[in-house]
Write a structure and sequence with these properties.
The chain has about 200 residues and is α+β, with helices and mostly antiparallel strands. The protein folds into two domains: about 90 residues, Alpha-Beta Plaits; about 80 residues, Alpha-Beta Plaits (2-Layer Sandwich). The protein is about 30% helix and about 25% strand. It is built from six helices and eight strands, in the order αβαββαβββαββαα.
Length: about 200
């Protein structure tokens, strides 16, 4: 019993001394892709608790807090593996949270909210659409629903508008009610993202 308690205590201490990393990765299409990403990150000696969801692109792991990785190191390693990193978050063992989100570009705190139809199929589409919308100056948040195909966006109307956001989604291959993606952009989508076009 004492030995079991000591083990549990040691395990708790071990987790307490580790930072947790979460990255949304675009481009993971199969188990082999996940294996390649995991293999690249194992170059960081001491990495543990690796978890990869191929459908959503969610990738997480833990790393010793006494030799912390920076966001830049993590994002660069994803790119070295051949994939595109989107949102990333580090939860440090001391309670500090570091993320890639930047709300500082917003000038107006009185934001408009709109729902826009954006065609797509899966978790990879969700990541791609939300990332594209998020790159538009003035967009504070973007959330796409796989089932309804609706993109809910909050944005500074003095900096952007619905049409600009629709153009951003179309630029990465996703048709909207107001803007049609080019054939080239659509053809560049991963096979599992090839939705049935309504045009």
């Amino acid at each position: 019993m004492i030995g079991l308690f000591a083990f549990a205590q040691a395990d708790a201490q071990s987790k307490k001394g580790r930072d947790t990393y979460e990255v949304q990765v675009d481009g993971l299409g199969c188990p082999f892709c996940a294996y390649g990403l995991e293999k690249k990150f194992k170059e960081f000696k001491g990495i543990k608790d690796i978890a990869i969801d191929i459908e959503t692109g969610d990738f997480s792991f833990s790393y010793p807090a006494d030799k912390p990785l920076s966001l830049e190191q993590v994002l660069t390693q994803v790119e070295k593996a051949g994939y595109t990193p989107n949102e990333a978050k580090i939860s440090r063992a001391d309670g500090e949270i570091v993320t890639t989100k930047t709300a500082g570009k917003l000038l107006n705190t009185d934001l408009a909210t709109s729902k826009l139809y954006v065609n797509g199929m899966c978790g990879m589409c969700k990541a791609r659409i939300e990332k594209a919308a998020g790159t538009v100056d003035g967009v504070a948040s973007a959330l796409w629903d796989v089932d309804t195909k609706m993109l809910t966006v909050s944005f500074d109307a003095t900096q952007t508008d619905e049409k600009a956001i629709e153009k951003a989604a179309a630029a990465v291959g996703h048709d909207t009610k107001g803007v049609t993606a080019s054939d080239k952009a659509y053809d560049n989508l991963h096979p599992c993202c090839k939705y049935e076009r309504e045009i």
